[in-house]
Amino acid sequence: GLDISTLLKETGYVTLDPGFVNTASCTSAITYIDGDAGILRYRGYPIEELAERSSFVEVAYLLIYGELPTSAQLEDFEGRIREHTLLHEDFKAFFSGFPRDAHPMAVLSSAVSALSTFYQDSLDPSDPDQVDISSIRLISKLPTIAAYAYKTSIGQPLLYPDNSLGYIENFLRMSFGLPTVPYEIDPEIARVLDMLFVLHADHEQNCSTSTVRMVGSSQANLFSSVSAGVNALFGPLHGGANQAVLEMLERIHQNGDDVDGFVRRVKAKEPGVKLMGFGHRVYRNYDPRAAVVKKATREVLDRLGKPDPLLDLAMRLEEVALNDDYFVERKLYPNVDFYTGVIYKAMGFPTNAFTVLFALGRLPGWIAQWREMMADPALKIGRPRQVYTGSPERHYTGIEKR
Ligand code: ACO
């Protein structure tokens, strides 16, 4: 009748599972994935339905509070988000303090970490009101931080948030608007960006979310935990893949669109050559998010009248890979990052901002997972064991004898 962890503790055995390929770190009621069938659901709702019918702010509410909001609840939630979009004036000095060419993900994680210094009244993880206000502050301020990081990098003035606008529209205006020129928001672009954020909003115990939970398990505050998640997302095997995909497509394009030659190099496992945007730890089937993004990419390029040879190239690459034994045997399919870069580029975002967009989308998931963990009476500090492979006991020798 002993559970596995008690059994292992009592017998002194540990499981060795590098990369946690088969080890669950928690129970969770937020997101369901069936990787073989290519199914993703938030709180039971299929991702395809949410992408088509819901909105990012509504999905944030769903993930954090567990149910879709009534219209009064949604209005209240949106109102609270609007109230907190401004950053403290002194916070602005932060952006000019970094080198202009700093990667925006590095700026973002530093800025999120700095929220703990500016908003000291919401740091106590055991106080539900403080947890709630820090959640709202993060959702409200992350787009402002992301837009300010971008504006600073291109030497343009920072725009204050305009709270008469919706969440996505406000972010687009702060990113692309100028104080001297009225900024016209393309509602179709705003709709697609909103949908992309919905698709990214949670993905159960991925690398960054596990990081957020691990840091939070020490009772670190929500800002500190989320900034650690941003850092985990930065890596090219995780959120950084959307940037890496676009750079890969550009390199292949410059090499005369030699798709077959590139695929040969991937299969030969040349160091550093991977088909970025392909493969996933959990999906052994087409990533359902990638299917939605692929369709949207074509629609956005058509709407903007901006055909991009990189989209045709990506589609050819996908076709070649899906018909090649190497990828078929390993069950490697496009993941969410394979097509997003082409859309973000068409919307006008620079390549190094793509992972920041992923972070904006993933934020509600990080918050929901952190809160679920904190509310769990069985919460224990995350502390994996190891299998020691070093030297047996030996004795110190003075430096002259070594
Ligand atoms: N290109 C070429 N070969 C690949 C790729 C790829 N993109 N992905 C996996 N493989 C191969 C591996 O070399 C390995 O081959 P082997 O059995 O001959 O050794 C096999 O497929 C299994 O791959 P693993 O690396 O063991 O799979 P793992 O679950 O550890 O890694 C990961 C998953 C990191 C996503 C991997 O597929 C990858 O590096 N993909 C490219 C980066 C990427 O797109 N990341 C985004 C992931 S989605 C996200 O975070 C939103």
From TrEMBL:
PROSITE patterns cross-referenced by the UniProt entry: CITRATE_SYNTHASE
UniProt pathway: Carbohydrate metabolism; tricarboxylic acid cycle; isocitrate from oxaloacetate: step 1/2
Membrane-traversing stretches: none
Record's catalysed reaction(s): oxaloacetate + acetyl-CoA + H2O = citrate + CoA + H(+)
Presence of keyword Transferase: yes
A Pfam family: Citrate_synt
Transferase recorded as keyword: yes
InterPro entries (alphabetical): Citrate_synth-like_lrg_a-sub (IPR016142), Citrate_synth-like_sm_a-sub (IPR016143), Citrate_synthase (IPR002020), Citrate_synthase_AS (IPR019810), Citrate_synthase_bac-typ (IPR024176), Citrate_synthase_sf (IPR036969), Citrate_synthase_typ-I (IPR010953)
CDD domains, alphabetized: EcCS_like
Keywords on record: Acyltransferase, Transferase, Tricarboxylic acid cycle
Highest taxon in the source lineage: Bacteria
Molecular function per GO: citrate synthase activity
UniProt similarity note: Belongs to the citrate synthase family.
PANTHER family xref list: CITRATE SYNTHASE
This protein's name: Citrate synthase
Highest classification ranks of the organism: Bacteria, Bacillati, Actinomycetota, Actinomycetes, Streptosporangiales
